[in-house]
Amino acid sequence: MNLTRLNAVLLGLGLGISAVAVAAPTLVQDVRVFDGSDVHARRSVLIDGGLIVDADFHGPAPRGARLVSGAGRTLLPGLIDSHVHAYRHFDLPLLFGVTTQVDMFTGVQAMQEITRAMAANNNRHQADLFSAGTLVTAPGGHGTQFGMPIPTLARAADAQAFVDARIAEGSHFIKIVLEDGSHAHRVNSLDLATVKAAIDAAHKRGKLAVVHISTLANARAALVAGADGLVHLFNGEHISDQETADFARLARAKGAFVIPTFSVLESAAGVPVRPLAAGSPLAGLLDKEQQVPLQTRYGKKLAPERLRVPAAVTAALHKEGVPVLAGTDAGNPGTQYGISMHRELAALVEAGLTPRAALASATSVPAAAFRLGKRGRIANGYKADLLLVKGDPLADISATQQVEEIWKDGESARALRDQQRLRVAQEAAPSPANRVRLPADGRISLFSAAKLGSPVGTGWGPSHDGMMGGSSTVELALLPDTVEGQPAVSVSATVAPGFPYPWAGVAFLPGAKPMQPADLSAAKLIRFKVRGDGKRYQLSMMSRGVTIPGQVPFTAGAEWSEISVPFSEFAGIDPAAVTMIGFNAGPKPGGYRFDIADVRLLER
């Protein structure tokens, strides 16, 4: 195909492209192609102007085209992660071959900015985003715990107005929460009448309505109410064959799709993130902050048996012909944007999907389910969002980790990946000069009537969920007596219901400014003296990039006692970037009182 013919094809597709774009098409030659549903052993694919011009190209290469050898490689559509919470690291997914994210809850401004960039064809250096914007949840329900005020829905009668407001903000679809928490921690939930009203309101405006659930009962109820899709499955050790079959048949009868989100279900089951395949080029693409979420987990105890239920249900759904979509729930502990998709694909195969079906679940299937237009396939006129991997992921799904090259809107992401690798390497270089110099005795509590001070950092102060919209309160007071010559502080807390994870206590901020990271890697443990009302408390620590603190419980008995906790017990916390150390009451509502003194950060 010569340039004249190439121009004619593009014009026939109604595509306006620049002279620079026409002058530099890319031809991937003699490559195995998975086109989103079918496999082609050997094809050449021509891309230009941000689009796939010819998915089965024959003839001499266009003059000036960049030629890419496909020998021993497989060309895939760019991956689509069907469940994320995209509030940061917007460029990260692309580095791992995820060219489109379907977001289930993010800030409205971020959603609108990316939507505008996509409309202007100016989003080539990060993944595209289709978002629900603000989710539909009850006052005090799941989704209200993240520190930003959001509108909530209290009555079915208000559902249409609520949904219309989300659509006016730019939501591509509507996400609804049917979640009342666990036995240990209940949260408010929409009732079924309100869920159905919200679904109906979305459908009235031609929008999809998907539902967050965490139990079989709620999953069935959401499907009966008319949900287009379920954005999670649910953990458990046992489900009967009859329950599994009935649920799969119900999903099929309702024409719904399901996103299992194994990545976050594994986190909830305490399962560590699996290592990358040997020699994977994905290694070295995450900086320290970006690695932290992969080192944390929701589940405090290893319980892989809890993954039996979602695996069995996923297999039944697939067998029944229910569309299964690959989604990671990235943005949560145990996940990270982009990289978690490769684990998600492997988990789907382990659950019973063929590699071919798993690849479809991350390409053509979500593109169709979420009505994403011409993406998710390698076909003429589709977006040139492509992933080239070494080997054959249709035989071994781990081959998706052997990334050779990525294209977003026809532009190679090679330079972006090289820049990220360089940045990560520079960060890894030793910089002991940046470490906080601890006092000789390690003591960070310099309490006095004038100030709750410290020789390092910002010092001490009250901490409670009121900073994030909760109602808990705390009062701090210097005690008139000392413990072994050290002034002590009394902490009187009232933990109030109404916030999903309420707390109140006292916090130490080690940075030069509040919540600024501090390098405390010179310390190996924290030691303190405490007494109190005999109740259980939490020693918590946060570091840069962490949304859920690492926590270690302690008891404040009636007499003074000394407690030592190694930093190593705070899973996923980076000692080189600590933002806060807290001593907190909660989440059980009620009154609490404890005294604390002589807090030290020690090298051993």
TrEMBL record:
Domain Amidohydrolase-related span(s) in chain numbering: 74-410
Pfam families per the UniProt record, alphabetical: Amidohydro_1 (PF01979), CIA30 (PF08547)
Signal peptide: 1-23
Ranges for domain NADH:ubiquinone oxidoreductase intermediate-associated protein: 459-571
Sorted UniProt keywords: Signal
InterPro entries hit by this protein: Amidohydro-rel (IPR006680), Galactose-bd-like_sf (IPR008979), Metal-dep_hydrolase_composite (IPR011059), Metal_Hydrolase (IPR032466), Metallo-dep_Hydrolase (IPR051781), NADH-UbQ_OxRdtase-assoc_prot30 (IPR013857)
Name of the featured protein: CIA30 family protein
